[in-house]
Design a protein that fits this description.
Chain A: Pfam families: FlpD. Chain A: This is Hydrogenase iron-sulfur subunit. The complex is a heterodimer. Chain A is α/β, with parallel strands linked by helices. Chain A is built from five helices and four strands; from the N terminus they run βααβαβαβα. The model of chain A has no long low-confidence stretch (mean pLDDT about 90). In chain A, strand 3, helix 4 and strand 4 form a beta-alpha-beta unit. In chain B, about 35% of the residues are buried. Chain B has a four-stranded parallel β-sheet, with helices on both faces. A three-stranded antiparallel β-sheet of chain B has the order 1-6-7. The mean pLDDT of chain B is about 95. Chain B has two domains: about 120 residues, Response regulator (Rossmann fold, 3-Layer(aba) Sandwich), CATH 3.40.50; about 70 residues, no CATH class. Chain B is α/β, with parallel strands linked by helices. Helices cover about 25% and strands about 25% of the residues of chain B. Classes of the chains: A alpha/beta, B alpha/beta. At the A-B interface, helix 3 of A face helix 1 and helix 3 of B.
């Protein structure tokens, strides 16, 4: 049975700003997966654990966060904090006996870099391999 | 403060699995400060309970609330505002709060979301360490302000023991020998000789070995 994943991306404004140029058409042309819905945040340090969990509650099969390189965050430690929170959700998912790979953190250079598209492709493949979220039973 | 940490989710899900409506009740006291059971942690817990039960194919309606503290009757009475909105209360307070709800709310089932661990303080951001055992008979004036009851693995009153090596405890190289620290600290004040005084055999009845403890201040009772 075919499965079309629903993936939520929380992306740093600076990392993704060029990704939104021309309404994201360039991104599509580069092969960014249609399964990914992007939420832009001023800084990934702003993303709370509750926001990440709510994405799963809202039906996401996978969630990922794209923030600045560890040593290059505009807000100094924003992407470090985001990574810690992603880690907390990974641990919580494991406690619920759910694959912790359903959430991931990426530290990428700013602007529309090939890595931004590659991260989306990687998450899309990973979630397709994992299958539908076990939280979406009802 | 009282330091606590969230119980494993499997344990919590087992508690509330048959509930249709749960009140996740945060405490804005100590457990908020130690990031275990304040409003933010209660919101995370509420989400995890919803997800955990969804995974089991169960739906649950969760109400989130918080009290100033869960260790005072007047605040516990405020639970009335959620009457009819829950089958059970999942408290993110310390064990005191859970006991207070059980004491005062005869018709409410209450479950603990946390394991209450110790009296401690913030060693650094995100790290808490035990400092006091609440033993009811402080000896801190004799030990340079450092507690051998809470911070010595053996709660020795005449330390250090033979397991102290290079200022570390024999249970782990990561644990300071508090008796070494006491010696060093007293020495810095020129009071090393205090270490030679033999502490007498201790009466541990004040530490809870004499049953549940109570403090009563006649001047404050009404």
């Amino acid at each position: 049975m075919s499965f079309e994943p629903k993936i939520t991306l929380f992306s740093c404004h600076y990392t993704s700003q060029q990704s939104c140029a021309e309404d994201g058409k360039e991104l599509q042309q580069l092969g960014f997966p249609a399964s990914v819905s992007m939420i832009r945040v001023p800084c990934t340090g702003k993303v709370q654990v509750t926001s990440l969990l709510k994405a799963f509650e809202d039906g996401a099969d996978g969630v990922y966060v794209v923030g600045c390189p560890l040593d290059g965050c505009h807000n100094v430690k924003g992407s470090v904090r985001a990574a810690r929170r992603v880690g907390a959700v990974q641990k919580a998912l494991a406690e619920l006996d759910v694959e912790s790979d359903r959430i991931a953190m990426y530290h990428l250079p700013r602007g529309l870099q090939p890595e931004f598209v590659a991260a989306g492709v990687e998450m899309d493949k990973k979630i397709r391999d994992l299958g539908p979220s076990p939280f979406n039973k009802i | 403060m009282i330091v606590a940490e969230r119980k494993p989710m499997a344990e919590i899900i087992e508690m509330v699995k048959d509930c249709k409506k749960v009140l996740v009740l945060a405490c804005r006291g100590c457990v908020t400060v130690c990031s275990a059971g304040g409003e933010r942690e209660a919101a995370i817990l509420a989400s995890l309970v919803r997800l955990g039960l969804k995974k089991e194919g169960r739906e649950v309606e969760i109400t989130e609330g918080s009290l100033v503290r869960q260790c005072d009757k007047e605040y516990i009475d405020a639970i009335d505002q959620w009457n009819g909105q829950y089958d059970a209360i999942l408290s993110t307070a310390c064990g005191v709060g859970v006991n207070f709800i059980a004491n005062l709310r005869k018709n409410d089932m209450v479950y603990p979301a946390l394991n209450t661990t110790f009296f401690g303080g913030s060693a650094e951001q995100g790290v808490w360490s035990e400092q006091c055992a609440g033993c009811g008979d402080c000896v801190l004036h004799l030990t340079g302000g450092l507690c051998p009851v809470a911070r010595c693995a053996k709660s020795l009153m005449n330390g250090p023991c033979g397991g102290s090596v290079d200022g570390r405890c024999e249970i782990s190289r990561d644990v300071d020998c508090i008796w070494q620290s006491i010696h060093d600290r007293l020495g810095s004040f020129g009071r090393s000789a205090q270490m030679e005084a033999i502490a007498p055999i201790r009466d541990w009845s004040t530490a809870g070995h004499g049953g549940p403890r109570k403090v009563e201040r006649k001047d404050l009772t009404v």
